[in-house]
Specification:
- The complex is a heterodimer of chains A (200) and B (564).
- With 200 residues, chain A is mainly α.
- In chain A, helix 5 packs antiparallel against helix 6 and helix 7 packs antiparallel against helix 9.
- Chain A is globular and about 60 Å long.
- The two termini of chain A are 28 Å apart.
- In chain B, a hairpin with a 4-residue loop joins strand 20 and strand 21.
- Chain B starts with 7 loop residues before the first strand and ends with a helix.
- The chains are: A mainly alpha (200), B alpha/beta (564).
- At the A-B interface, helix 5, strand 3, strand 4, helix 6 and helix 9 of A face helix 7, helix 10, helix 12, helix 15 and helix 16 of B.
C-alpha cells in the first residue's frame, strides 16, 4: 500500500476528514498525513474545504482502480480471509444487537428505546461486551496481516468502555465515533480491502 | 476452616438474606417465595464461597457435601432426579452479584441433560424432538459460556451431570475476575472482594402437556399504561419458543379455557408484585401440568405513553408520591410524546408512492433528493429535503443529518439507514424495493416512519402540545413545583437571554462564562437533558425553550438529584 493510496483510502472511509481524523485509521502520524492530504489536493485527487478534505471524482477513480494491485496478496492470504469471513458472521449479530439497542419489544410491539429502563440497556451493553471479545480475536488476526487494523480494536474498546461507564451515546450515536460508527467504518474498510460490495 | 455458616442457602422463602450474601437474582427469587408465590425450587451458593474460591483458587472442601444435600432437596421439591429417571431434573445456573455489572457469566439453561436424560425427557413429554432440541441448546450454551469455545460441535461436554454443574459453578466464579468486570469495578469503585453468588434452580417445562404453557404478564398495559394487566401466553411451549419468534403468542385470555385457576392466581399475584415493588412489573411465568410457576418479576419496560400514564395513575392510586412519579418519566419520553404526527384522516385520501419497512418513527415532509451532497446544500438554503438512496453508507451521513426523512430501496431494520436514522431521530423507511425511489426525485412527499408509507405531497402534520394533554399538563405542574429553575416558552419582556442556538459549537465555553442569574435560551435545552443540567450548574436563573416540558422535567430531575 503506497502512502498516496492509503490517504485516499482514509478519505473514502471518513468523508470530510482532516489529518487528525484519519491519521490513526491509516496508521500514519498526523504530520505525514497532513502532507499527503495537501499533496492529494494539489494533484486534484481531493478537495479541501476549511481544513477538511474529501475525495474528488478523480480521486475516487484512482483509489478504486488500485485496490486489487495493493491488496492482491492480502486477498490470497487464507488467514486474513478466514478472519474476514468470521467478521461477516458477527456483523450480523452486531446489527441485531444495535436494533435491540435502539428499539425494544414491548407488549408485542417494537417501539423506540427511550433508554428509561436501565436494566434493559445494561443487558444490551453486556451483550456488546461479549460480542466485542469475539471481535477482538478477529481483529488480532486481521492486524497480524494489516497492522493498522489495530486502530479499530483500540477505538471500539474505548467506545465500549464509555458506554459501560454510563455514557450511552457511545453505543450507536451516528455523530460521534461510537461503537456502531467505528464498526461500520471497519466493515467498509474490509470490504474495500477484499474487494466486495456491501449487502444490506 | 471451621465455619458455622453453610456455603449454600435454600431459597425457600423462610428468610430473606441480604443481597450482599446471595446476589440480586437469588434475592428476587427469595423475595417472590416470601410473598407466598410459587417459584421453581432453587438454592444459592453464597458470595462467601466465591470469596473463598478467589482467595484459595479452589472451592471450599465442604461445598461438595452441601451440593449433594441441596441437590437432593431440589429433587425432593421438584419430584425429579438429577441425571436419572424416570423424570430427569434439569437446572439453570446463573451468576448473581449484589450489584449488576458487565462481564459476568450468562445463564446456563437445561444443565443436567445427557445421553440418558435426553431419552427420558423425550419419553416424559412425549416429544423426543423437544428433548433433542433442549440438548442442542444446552450444548451450545455450555460450550460458549463455560468452555468458552465457538465450536460447539467439537466441544467436550461432560456426560456426568455433577461434572456439568461443577464446571458451571467454577465458570461463574471465574467470570467475577473477567477483564470487563474488573475494569468496571475499578472505574466505579466497587470492591473486588464483593464476589458473586451462583443460583441453581430447577427448570420447569411448559411443554409437558395440554395443561402447560409459558408466557409473560405486565401488571399494566406497557403500550398505553392502562391499569389493566396485559399478557401473552403460548400453550404447550417453552420460553425459548416465545423468544425465538418461532411461535406467535396469544393474548392472555387464551389461558382462560383450560387453565382458569392458574390465570386467576397469576392476575392476583400481578397486583401483589406491583404493590410490593411500587412499580409496574414484567412477570415471566410457566405453567407445568396445570401448576403456575413464577420465573422472574422485574420493573417493566414500557412505551412513553405507558410511562406517563402509569406514573400519574400510581400517584392518584396512592402508591407513589409525585417526586417518585417524576423520576419515572424521562425527558426523552416526553419528546417522543410531543413529536409531530399526521393529522387523523389525512393519510386516507393521499396517494401512496412507496412502501417499505418502518424503522424510525416520526413524520418528515420534503422534496425528494437522491444525493447526500445535494441534500446538504439544499437544506443549508432552508429547503425541507427527503434523502432517497438505494442504500446508505457513512459517506451519506451529512445528507442524513440535513434531511427531514430518509428512504432506501434496499435493506431491513438493521441496515445502515435504519440504524443511523434512529440514532439521528429521523423518520426512516427502508427496503422500498429496487428502483422504487428513482422516480420520486424532485417530488414533495410525506414520509411516515411509523407505518413505512411514503405519500404524495405535503400532508397535514400536527405537533401535540403539552397543554392539550391532561397527563402532560399535570406532570408539568408537579415538575414546576420541584424544579429550582423556571422553564418558560418565551422570554419575559425586556429580558435579553444568552442564546445558545446561534452558538451551538461554543456551548461549553458559553456555560463556562455564564453569569449567575443569567437567562438562557435555545432549542438545545428542549433536546438535551445534559444541557439543562449544565445551565443549572452554571447558575442560570431561567431557561427559555420550546416545548417547555422536556427541559422542565430535566430541571426537576436535577433538583431531585441534588436532594440526594
Amino acid at each position: 500500500m503506497t502512502p498516496s493510496h492509503i490517504v485516499l483510502h482514509g478519505l473514502a472511509i471518513k468523508k470530510h476528514a482532516g489529518p487528525a481524523d484519519i491519521a490513526g485509521l491509516i496508521g500514519l502520524d498526523e504530520t505525514t498525513t497532513a502532507t499527503l492530504l495537501a499533496k492529494a489536493a494539489t494533484g486534484g485527487r481531493a478537495v479541501e474545504v476549511s481544513g477538511k478534505y474529501m475525495l474528488s471524482g478523480l480521486g475516487r477513480i484512482a483509489l478504486d482502480a488500485d485496490y486489487s494491485r495493493h491488496y492482491d496478496e492480502v486477498r490470497e492470504n487464507a488467514a486474513f480471509m478466514s478472519a474476514y469471513e468470521a467478521f461477516e458472521v458477527i456483523n450480523v449479530t452486531l446489527k441485531g444487537l444495535i436494533t435491540d439497542w435502539q428499539t425494544m419489544e414491548v407488549g408485542g410491539q417494537r417501539v423506540t428505546n427511550d433508554h428509561a429502563n436501565k436494566s434493559y440497556d445494561d443487558g444490551i451493553i453486556d451483550r456488546l461486551g461479549k460480542l466485542h471479545e469475539r471481535a477482538e480475536g478477529i481483529l488480532a488476526k486481521l492486524s497480524s496481516v494489516i497492522p493498522r487494523m489495530a486502530y479499530y480494536s483500540k477505538g471500539l474498546l474505548e467506545a465500549l468502555e464509555k458506554a459501560e461507564d454510563g455514557d450511552i451515546a457511545w453505543v450507536s450515536d451516528a455523530k460521534i465515533e461510537s461503537y456502531h460508527t467505528l464498526w461500520f467504518e471497519l466493515h467498509e474498510d474490509l470490504l474495500r480491502i477484499v474487494g466486495r460490495i456491501r449487502s444490506e | 476452616m471451621a465455619t458455622a455458616a453453610p456455603w449454600i442457602l435454600r431459597l425457600d422463602g423462610s428468610s430473606l438474606p441480604e443481597k450482599a450474601l446471595i446476589g440480586g437474582k437469588a434475592w428476587s427469587v427469595a423475595h417472590m417465595r416470601s410473598l407466598g408465590l410459587s417459584v421453581p425450587a432453587a438454592f444459592v451458593i453464597t458470595t462467601e464461597a466465591c470469596r473463598y474460591y478467589l482467595e484459595k483458587g479452589t472451592l471450599p472442601p465442604e461445598l461438595d457435601a452441601e451440593l449433594e444435600a441441596n441437590i437432593a432437596w431440589l429433587e425432593a421439591q421438584s419430584g425429579r432426579s438429577f441425571g436419572a429417571g424416570p423424570s430427569p431434573l434439569l437446572v439453570s445456573v446463573r451468576s448473581g452479584a449484589p450489584i449488576s455489572m458487565p462481564g459476568m457469566m450468562d445463564t446456563v439453561l437445561n444443565l443436567g441433560i445427557n445421553d440418558e436424560t435426553q431419552v427420558l425427557l423425550g419419553a416424559e413429554c412425549g416429544d423426543p424432538g423437544f428433548a433433542a432440541d433442549t440438548r442442542r441448546r444446552f450444548r451450545e450454551l455450555y460450550a460458549s459460556i463455560v468452555l468458552k469455545t465457538e465450536d460447539h460441535h467439537t466441544a467436550v461436554i461432560p456426560e456426568n451431570v455433577r461434572d456439568q454443574l461443577n464446571g458451571a459453578i467454577n465458570a461463574v466464579f471465574d467470570s467475577w475476575n473477567s477483564r470487563r468486570a474488573r475494569r468496571y469495578r475499578d472505574h466505579h469503585d466497587i470492591p473486588h472482594t464483593l464476589g458473586t453468588a451462583v443460583t441453581v434452580q430447577a427448570m420447569v417445562f411448559g411443554n409437558m402437556d395440554g395443561n402447560s404453557g409459558t408466557g409473560v404478564l405486565f401488571s399494566r398495559n406497557p403500550i398505553t399504561g392502562e391499569p389493566v394487566p396485559y399478557g401473552e401466553f403460548l400453550n404447550r411451549a417453552q420460553g425459548e419458543d416465545v423468544v425465538s419468534g418461532k411461535h406467535t403468542p396469544k393474548p392472555l385470555e387464551a389461558m382462560r379455557e383450560s387453565l382458569g385457576d392458574a390465570m386467576d392466581e397469576l392476575l392476583k399475584s400481578s397486583s401483589l408484585l406491583e404493590q410490593t415493588s411500587g412499580d409496574m412489573q414484567d412477570i415471566e411465568f410457566t405453567v407445568e401440568r396445570g401448576k403456575l410457576y413464577f420465573l422472574q418479576s422485574r420493573v417493566a419496560k414500557r412505551a412513553p405513553r405507558a410511562a406517563l400514564r402509569s406514573a400519574v395513575d400510581m400517584v392518584n392510586e396512592g402508591w407513589v408520591d409525585r417526586e417518585t412519579a417524576l423520576q419515572r418519566i424521562s425527558s426523552e419520553q416526553i419528546r417522543l410524546l410531543l413529536s409531530p404526527r399526521l393529522v387523523e384522516g389525512a393519510a386516507g385520501k393521499a396517494t401512496v408512492l412507496a412502501k417499505g419497512e418502518a424503522t424510525s418513527p416520526g413524520v418528515g415532509v420534503g422534496l425528494v433528493v437522491a444525493d447526500a451532497d445535494e441534500t446538504e446544500t439544499r437544506a443549508a438554503k432552508g429547503d425541507a429535503v427527503v434523502l432517497a438512496r438505494p442504500t446508505t453508507s457513512p459517506n451519506d451521513l451529512h445528507g442524513m443529518i440535513a434531511a427531514k426523512a430518509i428512504l432506501t430501496e434496499q435493506g431491513g431494520s438493521t441496515s445502515h439507514a435504519a440504524v443511523v436514522g434512529r440514532a439521528l431521530g429521523r423518520p426512516c423507511v427502508v427496503g422500498c424495493g429496487a428502483g422504487s425511489l428513482e422516480a420520486l426525485a424532485g417530488q414533495v412527499v410525506t414520509v411516515d416512519g411509523s407505518t413505512g408509507i411514503v405519500y404524495q405531497g405535503a400532508l397535514e402534520v400536527f405537533t401535540p402540545r403539552e397543554e392539550d394533554d391532561p397527563a402532560l399538563h399535570l406532570v408539568a405542574q408537579w415538575a414546576a413545583v420541584v424544579a429550582k429553575v423556571p422553564v418558560l416558552a418565551a422570554a419575559p419582556a425586556g429580558v435579553m437571554p444568552v442564546d445558545f442556538d446561534e452558538n451551538l459549537e461554543q456551548s461549553a465555553a458559553l456555560f463556562a462564562s455564564l453569569q449567575p442569574g443569567a437567562v438562557v435560551s435555545g432549542a438545545l435545552f428542549a433536546n438535551d437533558e445534559k444541557a439543562v443540567h449544565s445551565a443549572i450548574a452554571a447558575g442560570a436563573a431561567t431557561i427559555i425553550t420550546q416545548p417547555v416540558l422536556p427541559a422542565l422535567l430535566a430541571a426537576a430531575h436535577a433538583a431531585l438529584a441534588n436532594r440526594g
